[in-house]
Design goal:
single chain; alpha/beta; Oxidized Rhodanese, domain 1; 5-stranded parallel sheet; 10 helices; 47% helix
């Protein structure tokens, strides 16, 4: 009899455990997911962005540099570089209930996400990120507009393994770092001058026109347009660092590990 009671209790416990797994744990999981979602950034795809722009009068904000925004952007975009969000967003949109959609150049760009966080800190209620940025917008077949195109020009590239040797041979080389001030402070080449890309058109006169100018960006994706802009404005000898500062960092790490 005791054995039968023991077996009955074990079966009851197993049923109770199954009940917990099937009903209670999913409820707990859904609570956790909801909590995480509230804290996460809100990403939307291109068709949703189109709907919000047309039906909800959403403002679309390009977080790249002014030159990039004027060269190619989603039609009707506002050009507010990430570095200027704190200063320019509120004057442009004093109503904090205004629906905002931030985007940037590529699917790996983090600028829109950083702009999102800044906008939320400023108190904006309805903020979104266009997932995968302008790349996804084009892929979905939507139009891109050009306000003032930067004329493309042939640009020479140099790899990181040759950079220091080149600078040593050409002591008059001007090294232009177009990354953000924070990125520049964290790591940069000796003697480099920092003019963030969003300020390049305003500080053009600080760049010499008769010496080699090497342009360094984050990962090599933005330097080409910057170089074209410089060439169009009379800078004769312009070279871009292939792969950007990321290649210099990897090269340094590889040397340290050998």
């Amino acid at each position: 009899m005791d054995l039968m009671v023991s077996i009955f209790h074990r079966k009851s416990l197993r049923k109770a455990a199954v009940f917990i797994m099937l009903f209670i744990l999913p409820f707990l999981s859904s609570c956790k997911a909801t909590h995480t979602q509230d804290k996460s950034q809100k990403n939307i795809d291109s068709p949703t962005a189109v709907y919000l722009i047309k039906e909800k009068k959403a403002a679309v904000i390009d977080t790249m540099s002014y030159l990039e925004c004027m060269d190619h952007r989603i039609p009707g975009s506002h050009c507010i570089a990430l570095e200027e969000i704190d200063k320019k967003l509120l004057p442009a949109f004093p109503n904090k209930s205004q629906l905002l959609i931030f985007y940037c150049e590529s699917d790996k760009c983090s600028r829109a996400g950083q702009a999102y966080e800044k906008a939320k800190l400023l108190g904006y209620e309805s903020v979104y990120i266009l997932e995968d940025g302008l790349v996804a917008w084009k892929r979905a077949g939507y139009e891109v507009e050009t306000i003032q195109r930067v004329k493309r020009a042939p640009v020479i590239s140099i790899k990181s393994v040759r950079l220091k040797e080149f600078i040593k041979e050409r002591k008059d080389t001007f090294v232009l770092d177009i990354r953000s001030e924070d990125a520049f402070k964290a790591n940069h080449l000796d003697g480099a001058k920092n003019i963030p890309f969003f300020m390049l058109h305003k500080r053009l006169d600080e760049i010499p026109k008769n010496v080699p100018v090497i342009v360094i960006d984050e990962n090599g994706k933005r330097s080409f347009l910057a170089c074209c802009y410089l060439i169009n404005n009379g800078v004769k000898d312009v070279i871009r660092l292939f792969g950007g500062m990321e290649t210099m960092v990897r090269q340094t790490r590889n040397k340290d590990n050998t």
